[in-house]
User: What shape does this take?
Amino acid sequence: MPIYEYEAIHPAKGCKRCSRRFEVIQGLSDSPITQCPDCGRPVRKVISWCRAAVVETSEEALRVEQKIAEYEKEGMWSHAAELADKHSEKIKDQGLKLRALEDYKKAGYDADKMEKYASTDND
Ligand SMILES: [Zn+2]
Assistant: This one.
């Protein structure tokens, strides 16, 4: 479920929770809250730069994903692997990491060495 950030409209009058920004976990269909859950004072939703960044990343991820698929289609396994590997580091995506491994294997890299490499990174 997404996390939304709120702040009090008058932070100086807020309680412990709403005197600074606080986060609320809400379903997508829930309407935004207008009052602090603790003290009932008016709050407003904060437009979060952090969320905007997430969207950007997923768009970038989509482009990278397409590029990887392209390389795979053309049998350019080491290219696909390198790109998937690099990107999986960046976005911390273990699925993509495994995909990179598969591509490394297809490219003829030492699979055992690669698996070890992946597992050390999988904390
Ligand atoms: Zn409050």
